[in-house]
Design a protein that fits this description.
460 residues; 14-stranded parallel β-sheet; 9-stranded mixed β-sheet; elongated
Length: 460
């Protein structure tokens, strides 16, 4: 018997108060629906169909290759959504059909695998995942007679007595395909919403031989997202899960509640992550590196033993033992060699900085290659844009660029070259040479007194 899965992702998410499809909101850098699809696949299900509705094209674009798409239009409830999926999937007789909501990113593959295993041994046409919650508000209540599930009643249709039931269904089921298809053909829309409920199909199946239930794990795992507040809560739980895994592998995290690490980020053992750190995308942190406090790094590499604090990195690479910050901005294309430094209030863009070289403070260096063991004095700038095109600056090894030097690209400073402070360098500097470009200093004696007398006369 094969297992096929339906992921319900057509809901508009009106409580989100956004035109963006709800399942495209991200948790730890990954859309809600992608978390769910990945969990289903990891549970051993290869045939996955996602039901889309509002913003369906955008949802389809971010799904893994090979995932089927069923369109639910209009959106008339969860039962109607599964009908759309079955129309897309074709004959499911003889198959097990796993149904999972697309807004539960914390749901683990192990839980789904356990549900499928429980279903296969239950002898029932349907097995549902249930959780007992201290506050079941918003969930369908599981109505039992002894050990048998008789029905799932949506909260809006529940009686006061049923609303006091703490055991709830969490929209996650395993069905025998033929039983599911047959029950859905009989489901009506005679309810307060005028919708076709999947829970009504469960009730019909229950009346024909019983429905099994598997008690789920911690209620947090099945938390759905229907509002911005719930999105924030689920995101916090996911961050704690991600950071807990890294801490188990030897990463030091000062305050997990104040660290934001995407699921795609890689942290090596003995790295240290301080508070108020945001690591996104394909960022990696090497062993022994110290990151934070106050760092935002996206799609960047922070090498072993590096130190980065109070800085922003975007598609940048920090070499082994290099230092960044405080208050530095590394823009895309910045590559720092081992032991190099980008210091306070420095901005770099498309820069190759050689081993041991330093840009200590108050500089902008863009579209440049800097050799090894060179130093860029405070306030220096590569003037890389002429209003039409970007031009490149090349600085050799062991170069000393004096403070407040303007390097007007394209220009090259050879190995062991020097520039005098306050110079505007427009021509290449030969290796080992000093280039100075300054007007002679002129002194005007008595200027202050003359200026004061002039001001006095003008004020009369």
């Amino acid at each position: 018997m094969s297992v096929r899965a339906v992921v319900l992702a057509a809901g508009r998410g009106t409580r989100m108060r956004s035109d963006r499809p709800k399942v495209l909101f991200e948790v730890a850098g990954r859309p809600l629906v992608v978390w769910v699809v990945d969990a289903v696949i990891a549970a051993g299900v290869d045939d996955v169909t996602v039901v889309v509705g509002h913003g369906g094209e955008a949802v389809a674009e971010i799904l893994p290759e090979g995932v089927g798409i069923a369109v639910q239009e209009p959106q008339l409830g969860t039962g109607h959504a599964v009908m759309a999926a079955l129309d897309h999937m074709g004959d499911v007789a003889g198959d097990t059909v796993l149904v999972v909501p697309g807004d539960t990113p914390l749901l683990r593959p192990d839980t789904l695998a356990a549900l499928l295993e429980a279903h296969s041994g239950s002898g029932s046409a349907a097995t549902l995942l249930t959780v007992t919650m201290p506050d079941p508000t918003g969930y369908g209540r599981v109505v039992r007679r002894r050990d048998r599930v008789e029905a799932i009643v949506e909260e809006r249709d529940a009686s006061p007595e049923q609303r006091r039931i703490g055991e709830v269904a969490v929209s996650t089921y395993a069905f025998e395909g033929a039983a599911l298809a047959g029950a859905l053909r009989e489901v009506g829309s005679e309810n307060t919403q005028g919708e076709y409920y999947l829970t009504d199909a469960v009730g019909l199946i229950a009346g024909r031989g019983g429905v099994a239930a598997m008690a789920g794990p911690d209620p947090d795992e099945v938390s759905g997202v229907n509002s911005m507040e719930q999105l924030a809560g689920v995101s916090a739980l996911m961050r704690r899960r991600i950071l807990g895994r890294w801490m188990d592998q030897g990463v030091w995290v000062q305050d997990p509640a104040r660290c934001y690490v995407d699921a795609s980020v890689v942290l090596e053992p003995d790295s240290r992550i301080y508070a108020d750190v945001h690591l996104e995308g394909r960022t990696t942190v090497g062993a022994g590196a110290v990151v934070g406090p106050g760092v935002h790094a996206a799609d960047s590499v922070i090498g072993p033993g590096a130190r980065v604090w109070y800085s922003v990195l975007r598609s940048a690479e920090v070499g082994e033992g290099a230092e960044v910050g405080p208050f530095a901005s590394l823009r895309p294309g910045t590559v720092m060699g081992p032991g190099s430094k980008v210091g306070s209030f420095v901005e770099t863009k498309a820069v190759a900085l050689g081993a041991g070289s330093k840009i200590p403070h108050l500089s902008y260096i863009g579209d440049a290659a800097i050799g090894e063991q060179s130093n860029i004095g405070a306030g220096s700038i590569t003037c890389n844009y002429d209003g039409y095109q970007k031009h490149r600056t090349v600085i050799g090894d062991r170069v000393r660029i004096g403070s407040d030097t303007m390097l007007v690209a394209p220009v090259e400073v050879g190995d062991d070259g020097w520039t005098g402070a306050g110079s505007v360098i427009t021509r290449d500097v030969a290796p080992g040479s000093l280039a100075v470009e300054r007007s002679p200093q002129r002194e005007v004696p008595g200027y202050a007194a003359r200026r004061a007398r002039k001001a006095e006369r003008e004020g009369e």
